[in-house]
Structure prediction request, 404 residues.
Amino acid sequence: MNNDTLTPPLAWVNGSDAPEKHSLNIGFMALSDCASVVVAATQGFAQPYGLSLNLKRQSSWAGLRDKLVSGELDAAHCLYGLVYAVHLGIGGTSATAMSVLMGLNQNAQGINLSSALQRQGVTRPEALERFVHQSGTKLTFAQTFPTGTHAMWLYYWLASQGIHPLDDVNSVVVPPAQMLAHLQAGRIDGFCVGEPWSADAIEQGQGFTLATSQSIWPDHPEKVLAGTRAFVEQYPNTARALIQSVLAASRFIEQSLENRRSTAQLLSGKAYLDSPLNSIEPRLLGHYHDGLGNHWHDPHALRLHAHGRANFPFLSDGMWFMTQFRRWGLLREDPDYLDVASQVQQLALYRDAATDLGVPCPEQNMRRSQLIDGTYWDGSDPAGYARSFAFHALAETPAAPACR
Prediction:
C-alpha cells in the first residue's frame, strides 16, 4: 500500500532548493530524545543546508504548543500526540493545521513507582493491580500532557494490566523535569515520562522503573520534529533543509558508541537537560537497571535513527494516536484516520530529504506491530481497532487533566 499521492510534493521556490528562511527558532524539552535536534543545532549539521538553528528550551509541553501555534517557534521537538491533538482541535487550543516533518526517536520512556509503594511490596504489575483493587486507596499517576505519548503509554499499560486508567486511578499532568519533585513530595505515586527523569529517580533513590515504553510496543513512535502546516507551505525549502539537518545529526549520533557518549555529555549541560551524566548516558547506551536489582541491555532502547527506521513518518504511527484518543473519549467521533494522517505526515517532503542524504525509506507507508496485550496494529481498520479493547471510554468524553 502506497499513499504518497495523498500528500503531493511541494514545489521548490523559483526552482531552487535554497532555504527561504535561514534562522529558525526550534523548541525542545529537557529530555534525552531531543538529542538529534541539539546536535544538529550545535555541532555544525545545519550550516551546510543554509540554516542557523536557535534552540529554545521550554518548561512545559503546553507552553511549547502555544509558541509553536503562534509562530514564536518555527518547529519543535514535540510529542506525537500533541501534534495530532492540536490538528484536531482537542489540544487545549483551537484547531491548527499541523505537520510532522520526521520522527525523532523510538522507545525510551519509563513508568516508575514511588519508594512508598516499593516498601509495601508493590514491585510487579500483578501486585499493583491487586493494590489498586483491594487497598481502597486511589493512586495518582502523572503524565506530561493529556493527549501526549506518556498519557497514552500509561493508559495503555495500565489497561493491559487490568487497571482502568480513568476509573481506577487518578491522572494528573506534570512537566517532565518536575516529576521527581512531585514524587518526593508525595503528590504522586508514579509517573510516565521520558528519560533521563525515569533513570534520575532511581539514581536519587526515589522509587523504581516498573515498565519501559518499549515493553508496551517495541520500537514505538515517540517524539517528532513538528511545525505548523503554514510553516511548511510558506517555507518548503527551509522545512526540507531542516529535516536534512536533523536527519544527518541523527545518523551521526548512532554511528558509534563514542558519538553516543559525546552526545550524552553534551546533553548533560545546563543549557539542555541540566542533569547528571550518570542519569543520561547508561540508558542512551541501552544499559538499564530498574532500582530493584535487575540489570539488562535493552534491545529496544532509545533509537534516534536506526538506518532511518526511527525517522520515517509512517501514516500508521500517526493514526495509532488518534485511535487512542477515540478509545479514551478524547474524540467523540471517529475521524477519517487515513485522511488526517495523510495531511499531517509530510511523507513526500521527508522522502525527498532522506533520498538526498542517502537514507533508505521503506516502500510502504504503514507498518505492523504487536503490542503488550497481544493485539496487532497495522492501520488497516482504525475505527474497529479503537473499539476492540475491553477497557475504553467510548460512551462519553471525560474531562482531560488541565495543562500546566
Summary: The first strand starts at residue 23 and ends at 29.
